[in-house]
Design a protein that fits this description.
By secondary structure, the chain is mainly beta. The chain has one helix and eleven strands; from the N terminus they run βββββββββαββ. It has one helix at 104-108; strands at 2-6, 9-12, 17-24, 31-38, 45-51, 57-59, 67-72, 77-82, 91-99, 117-118, 122-127. The strands form two sheets. Strands 2, 4, 5, 6, 9, 10 and 11 form a seven-stranded mixed beta sheet that branches. The protein has a four-stranded antiparallel beta sheet with strand order 1-3-8-7, with no helix packed on it. Strand 5 and strand 6 (57-59) form a beta hairpin. The radius of gyration is 13 Å and the shape is globular. The termini are far apart. The model has no long low-confidence stretch (mean pLDDT 96).
Amino acid sequence: VQLQASGGGLVQAGGSLRLSCAASGFTFDDYAIGWFRQAPGKEREGVSCISSADGSRYYTDSVKGRFTMSSDNAKNTVYLQMNSLKPEDTAVYYCAANRARARAYSYCSGYGQNMYYWGKGTQVTVSS
């Protein structure tokens, strides 16, 4: 199982970015997949997760209405569309996955302790 995140960059506040996570070695049918982020000096947090166990979707409160997670099963890729970006969204963003046995919330909770496979992060910097 491999995950490769891309799409980060530098953007002004109010701008948009789309992150991509290309997966190999598994299909989304049996897995939960999610986006996490870690800002300097802070713990890693779950941003958005999807679980194939029940089709549930989770967003952390601070990104609701601004971020949208989607998947393209044909490309085995998930996306995180980030709109109305704020300086506090600045972080390294990671995608992660695990076999789906529970709702999306459980995979996004905490620092990602319920995720097993991790990709390298991509830096997102939002300037004020």
